[in-house]
Amino acid sequence: MWVVAWGASPENASATDANPGGAEQSFRSFFYPTVAGTTERVRFSNYFGTVPVTIGAAHLAIAATPPAVDSAKDVALTFAGGSSIVIAPGTEVMSDPVNLTYTFGQKLAVTAYVQGTFAPLTQHDSQVITNYASAVNAGNSTQDSAGISLTQPNTEWFLLSGMDVYGQYQGTVAIFGSSTIDGHASNYGDTNAYPVAQVPVPGQDNARISDALARTLNAAGFHLGVLNAGILGDVAGPTSGSASGSPGVDRIGRDVLRQPGIKTVVIDLGQVDLRLNACGQATEVEASLQNMVAQAYAAGVRVILGTIAPASYCTNPSSANYGPNPVNNGGPYAGDSNPGPENPGNVQRHLVNSWIKTTGGTLPGVVGVADSEAMLADPNHPDFLLPSLNSGDNFHLDGEGYKVKSQAIPTNLLLP
């Protein structure tokens, strides 16, 4: 069967310094597949684009030292037999199958030549992997294995939305969430302890929760692809807004349920709905989670619900949930339940977690709970992450923290 070896949910096509649009330019994107493979197809998305985009040529290769790739393990991609493809606005295209043999743990690269003049591209912020682009009007660099022409580093996966593999696999498991799934700060070490912030570790680019889960599954003899369907700033429900414009209830179908080989989804959303300016209510998050569970159940996909780990501080003075927190003059442990007073945003988090462990866990299609709160909360300060796993903002984990978070996922429930 076809399964997802790696994926990146489309975020937006917003014009930024990193994504201004251009002309006659090539992009080389690096990623780590979560299973070994011999037969692949690559997916490109123009989901958020408003005009057609032309890929003039594209290659898949095993990475060398970036921006280089291994010229002996580099294959050209075709689309319905041709070397180029026009991607209409709001759509995704898939290459023809190719044969490239790689092992688990190897880094791959896709190089795409975007032909003609183009507007800002549909993209996903990679957070921790450095990708490369050629200069505007440099033309087709897909066969530049040394990467000499790919002189502009960036942290985006432009157009690239996934790679599937075909073989004797058991299916795909997706982890669906916000920046704590997408891997923000996963390149940080764990040598400091909160409130001293952690620092990035050079070269640490394979420590997201999906990477850690893939290593666990591979070591245990599973043949499951792991899809990371996290997006920065994403919310569960529409009432809280979303940095990507696609809250979980709206995008779970596109980004998870319609992906190849999906057997199980771990839903880990709700943190962003409750914190900062959103300051949502537990009942809103619970309704959104129930909506997503129902969508998965209708699609025949098993669900594991993830509890919300610290922290969910409401920082909006106009909200009823506003209260003491580390940001507004309280010191490093302000708003913690020990000692009080507790920030009401965290009160809402506890209510959601209680619902997940009771009502949510009995919904049709839910097969278990990934209780990351129990593994990540500091016993002495239960509204805070464990000091050595806290990247420094008491929301995002460091690399070791994402490994611990992955261990909360009950792997025995990923398949029937």
Keywords:
Jelly Rolls, alpha+beta, 416 residues, 7-stranded antiparallel β-sheet, 5-stranded antiparallel β-sheet
Describe the structure in your own words:
Helices cover 18% and strands 30% of the residues. The chain is α+β, with helices and mostly antiparallel strands. The protein has two domains: 2-164, Jelly Rolls (Sandwich), CATH 2.60.120; 170-413, SGNH hydrolase (Rossmann fold), CATH 3.40.50. Strands 2, 4, 5, 6, 9, 11 and 12 form a seven-stranded antiparallel sheet that branches. Strands 1, 3, 7, 8 and 14 form a five-stranded antiparallel sheet that branches. Strands 16-15-17-18-19 form a five-stranded parallel sheet, sandwiched between helices. Helix 2 (209-219) packs across helix 8 (399-406). The mean pLDDT is 96.
Question: Can you describe this structure in just a few lines?
Answer:
The protein is of the alpha+beta class and 416 residues long. The protein has helices at residues 179-182, 209-219, 248-257, 271-274, 282-298, 344-357, 372-376, 399-406; strands at 2-7, 22-31, 37-45, 53-63, 69-76, 85-87, 92-94, 98-102, 108-118, 123-125, 131-133, 152-154, 156-158, 160-166, 171-177, 224-230, 262-268, 302-306, 366-370, 377-378, 381-385.
